[in-house]
Amino acid sequence: MKPKPYQLLIFDWDGTLIDSAAHIVACIHRVNAKVGLAPRTDAEIRNIIGLGLEEAFQHLFPQAQYALIQAAAHEYKQQFFLHNRKPSELFTGARETLEHLAEQGYWLAIATGKSRQGLNQVLAETQLTAFFPITRCADETFSKPHPRMLEEILVDYDLPASAALMIGDTEYDLQMAHNIKMDAAGVNYGVHGSERLLALAPRVCLDDIRELPIWLDNLAKS
């Protein structure tokens, strides 16, 4: 098997592998109305996708009391799991890309702002659970951009940061990797555009998830 530039590839979930932004935005609009928080624009909500639930609402409503933030986070879970629940679609080529990378011998993991319940459900719905033996969620460790998720994943795989690549669509993903001196790849089809991602100096900024194996192959040859 040809040499690989990294042993471990760590993926963000929302906006990187699955096209879930519209569903998340709609849920937060309903939550704000239900718990009495002021309306926020779609752009403002998209900006906080990738953070843990409480951190996301704290960013949207920095003056809100913590009890209200907790109520909003709880209501979001109700909205997401019980109401208007339509599974989001994987980005075109995401499944095939993961299959190809696994066949090439890469180890795969997920570091996400989702809750454990949320991630387990969407992994089951997309039938991708088997690809990711190690995952970390925002409700069981520190939220992005704190690097604890990555630190824990590296411990589980017994690897140094230099052996892993973080792939994500937000500056929170790239900052998290930067905080642990891990290489990162941005994808600009999610919630944060190229300009914001490039400001954090990723190794590459991809237009399509299907470009990742090609870039890794070229990196291995260089």
TrEMBL record:
Pfam family, one: HAD_2
Entry-linked Gene3D superfamilies: HAD superfamily/HAD-like, Putative phosphatase, domain 2
InterPro entries according to UniProt: HAD-like_hydrolase_sf, HAD-like_sf, HAD-SF_hydro_IA, HAD_2, HAD_sf, PGP-like_dom2
GO biological process, one term: DNA repair
GO molecular function: phosphoglycolate phosphatase activity
Full protein name: Phosphoglycolate phosphatase
GO cellular component: cytosol
Taxonomic source organism: Thiothrix eikelboomii
